[in-house]
Amino acid sequence: MYANSYSKTIALLILINFCACAFIEDKLGIGTNNPSQIGQTPSDCQDTTDQGCQTPQTPSSLGTWDQMTDGPVGLLWASAAGVSGKGYVLNGCKDVFCVGNYAHKATLEFDPSMNSGLGSWTTRETFPEQVTTSVTNYIGFGASTGNIGLFGLGVYLVQTPPINISTFHHGDIFELTPYSSSLWTKIDRPSTVHADGQLDRRKNSVSLAIDQDIYLGMGSSASAVLDDWWKYDTISRNWKKLAPLPSMLSGSSAPIAQGRSDALAFSIGQKAYVGCGLGPNDEKLSDMWEFSLPSANSPLGQWTFLGFAPFCPRSKAQAFSIGNFGYVATGWIYDSTPLQGDNVKNDVWKFDPSQPFDQAITQLPSLPGEPRHAAINFVIGQNAYVGFGEGIVCSSTSCSSKYLKDIYRFTP
User: Fold this and answer.
1) Residues 6+ apart with CB under 8 A from 278
2) φ, ψ for residue 6 (rounded to 5)?
3) pLDDT per position as a tens digit, 231-286
4) Whole-prediction pTM value?
5) CATH number for the domain including 281?
C-alpha cells in the first residue's frame, strides 16, 4: 500500500512540474522558436520581418535621458547648434509677443563638462544682427559641421506705438567659430546676381550638415512657401543650389512640386533626410525623403521618397542624428487648432535607415519634463541635448503658455 501511494505521489509531482514548465515556456517563448522573448535570434531564422525572429530592444538600446542645468531664461523659437564641444543657443523669444523685453538677444554657451557633468551656461557675444537692428530674430536656423556653426535668417517684429506690429524677414547669415579672434563672421547670402539665383529671406527653414558642408532649404518667405535646397561649403564659403524637395501627398500616386515649411531634417552618413511639415495651402504633410549627394549621374543630387512617417503630421519638432540613427522628438501634432495641451508632445522616435521604411521607425521612451514645441536641440559627441520651448497648460476652461528653460541630455 505504501509503495502504491508513493508511486502515485511521484506521478502527481511529475505532472505538476510538467504543467508548470509548459506554462512558463508559453509565457516566455522558451522552446517555442520565439527568441524575441528571450533576446536571442536563432541561426535558422531567415525571415527577420517575423516578430519571432527579431531581437527585442533592451532598455540600454532605448537610450537614457538625464536632466542638465537649466538655462537662464525660458525660450521658444530659438536657434541652436553644437560647435567644438559646446552648445550654443541664441535669439528666440521669452514670450509669443516677441518685442521689446520679450525678445531674447543673447548668445548662450553651454559647457557640458562643467558643474560635475551637469553643464553650465555662459553669455557670449551677441549675434551681430541684434546689435545693428536692436531687435531679435526668431524661427531662424542653426547648423554645425562640428567645428563651425551657421546661424541666421528668421523673422523679427517691430512695434509701432501704440499697438501696431510689423513682421520683417531677416537676411543675414553668420558663421560661429568659438576659438577664433571673433566669435561671428558674416557670410554672403546668394542674391539675384548669384549664378544659381537667390536664397530668399525666410523663416521655418531646415538645415543639417554632412562632412564640411551645411545644407539649408525650405521654409516660407514673405511671399511664398519654398522648396529650394542649398549647400554651403564651409571651406570655400561658396553656395550651390541643388535639386528642390518634392512633396508626396497622402493618397497620391506621384510626387508634386510644392514648398513646405515647419519641416524636420537630419543627416546620417552621406544622406540627408527631410520631411513632414506644412504645404503652401496648409497641407499637413507626413512624407519622408532621402537626399543623395550630387554625382555624375545626378549633378544636383537626388530625392527618393521613403514613405509616410507615423510621427507626423507635426511641426516645431526637434530632429537630430547620432551615429547611424536619426531621432525626432517633441513638437505640435496637427490634430486640433489652436494649440492645446493634448497635441503638444514629448514623444521620441528613432529612425534606422538600414531597415525597410515600414520597419525603420521605433518609438522610444518620452523626453522627461513637460510636453513642448518650438524647442531646441544640439549634438555634442555622442549625446544630444533637447530643451527649452513652449509648453501648454490647460484648465477646464482655457489654455495658457509656459516658457520652458529645462534641458535634457540623451544618450543612445
Assistant:
1) 225, 260, 261, 262, 284, 285, 313, 315
2) -65, -40
3) 999 999 999 999 999 999 988 889 999 999 999 999 999 999 999 999 999 899 99
4) 0.83
5) 2.120.10.80
